[in-house]
Amino acid sequence: MKILKGLLFLIVGIVILALLVALFVKKDYAVEREVTINKPVAVVFDYIKHIKNQDQYSVWNRLDPASKKTYTGTDGTVGFISGWESTNKNVGKGEQEITNITEGDRIDMKLRFKEPFEAEDEAYMATESMGENQTKVKWGFKGRMAYPMNLMLLFMDMEGMLGKDLQGGLDTLKTTLEK
User: Transmembrane ranges (predicted)?
Assistant: First the structure.
């Protein structure tokens, strides 16, 4: 009985310690990658502002080409929603909405993940002219993990996990647009 009591106190102590640590762990994360594309900014921006085009370059969209897609609104405009549903656990179910467009400069999106976990994050793509026929494209992702789930950020390499996929998507975008 003493051993069980001791084990119970140990488990409760570990849980309390983890909850205390989580109070001091950051809750926000942000990842950004960039690539330079040898095309004018107008051409690049017109391509990336259409969410359906992400099927051609996004690592996540290309994980399951058979995923069920739904669309609401006019692609390339504020309010457009692209939904997806897949049995592939790395794709899951969710939607992406265009929340703001600064023409020729930036597109902001809200990501709502529903499966395999629920979360809301923000993404953006920004373009910057580097010359007449060169455009820098930045793709960024910002998220927040609420307390006490933020404790997982101590063990997750968001920069490595998301950064690799963002860069892979940008490299494919570059190849696609420079053809």
Answer: 6-25
